[in-house]
Amino acid sequence: MSLKSQTVLITGASMGIGAAIARRLANESATLILFARSNDKLSVLSKELQERHTGLKVYTRAVDVQDNTALSNAVSNIIQQVSQIDVLINNAGLALGAPNAFPDLEIQDIITMTGTNINGFMFATYAVLNQGKMKARGRGTILNVTSTTGLEVPPFPGEAVYHASKACQEAFTNVLRTELTGTDIKVLALRPGVVATNFHEQRVGYDKQSYDTFMKGFEPLVAEDVADAAAFMLGQGDRVSVKALDVVPTAQRSLQVFDREWNERGEGRRAEAMSVDRAV
Ligand SMILES: NC(=O)c1ccc[n+]([C@@H]2O[C@H](COP(=O)([O-])OP(=O)(O)OC[C@H]3O[C@@H](n4cnc5c(N)ncnc54)[C@H](OP(=O)(O)O)[C@@H]3O)[C@@H](O)[C@H]2O)c1
């Protein structure tokens, strides 16, 4: 399905996966509505996209998804400028305080994680369905960026709140899909594994040693890999829902089993790829 005439609202669009999805969908000439808290980053991204794609329509709003009133006002305001919202990419989210166990977390970090990953995730959905009129139109797609942690709970100690919030997103996705029976609204889950974005640095409080230990020996995804997966899901026709898609680094066999020898074997992998290239 062409995304050319589609209007796509992306939460958490100022960097990482959300920004990569914006860039990917700009290539398809979708009209973009970009939400995040950082107005400056959104402005830079919007300028970049409009310079690269003549005539591309990009709307930005500095919105904290934890603030239901701000979010619903922003969607009400935007809907007066675009005729409709065809797609919500529900992507804003974060993990804080790892590797602390639950009782050792700062209470504010718990509030921010649940406020963003649970409340904000539902507020964005609610605003697009109601103020954004997706429910009244009975057409559209809600693509929830959840996580492999949402399914593989309980994974490892240290991220009780983040993992619980992602499991909640999975449950919400499944129930909403059934509640919207009788409409042509698709509700999909895109579950990334480890992606090298600000997320993992922030997750461990920007502690370089913890970050390096977590990423040791394997190649994580980059945000563009997840954006390609999102474009694949959105590109299906009305009849087909890619209901859920796990996109993970090959070395991430599960949340507990990482192939830390992946990089060591890289030379062999490169040599084989080159010999195939030569043979073609
Ligand atoms: N990276 C991974 O390995 C990974 C794996 C699985 C799932 N995910 C999920 O993918 C999504 C995106 O993560 P990412 O890797 O792209 O992280 P990121 O690079 O840190 O980007 C997170 C985005 O969310 C926005 N955001 C955070 N809190 C917000 C709030 N309260 N209101 C509005 N926007 C907010 C941030 O913008 P501002 O700071 O400007 O608001 C930013 O644009 C998250 O839901 C995350 O749980 C990531």
The domain count comes to: 1
- What is the 3D form? globular
Tally of extended strands? 7
Distance between the termini: 32 Å
Broad CATH class: Alpha Beta
Question: By CATH's scheme, which homologous superfamily applies?
Answer: NAD(P)-binding Rossmann-like Domain
Global mean pLDDT? 95
- As laid out across the biggest beta sheet, the strand order is 3-2-1-4-5-6-7
Largest beta-sheet characterization: 7 strands, parallel
Q: What class do helices, strands and sheet pairing give?
A: alpha/beta
- Give the C-alpha Rg: 19 Å
CATH architecture: 3-Layer(aba) Sandwich
> Which runs of at least 5 residues are low in confidence (pLDDT < 50)?
none
Please tally the helical runs, counting DSSP H or I stretches of 4 or more residues. 10
Bound molecules: NADP nicotinamide-adenine-dinucleotide phosphate
Query: What proportion of the residues form beta strands (DSSP E)?
Result: 5-15%
Order of helices and strands: EHEHEHEHHEHEHHHEH
**What's the CATH topology label?**
Rossmann fold
GO molecular function: oxidoreductase activity
InterPro entries: NAD(P)-bd_dom_sf, SDR_fam
Pfam families: adh_short
Keywords: Oxidoreductase
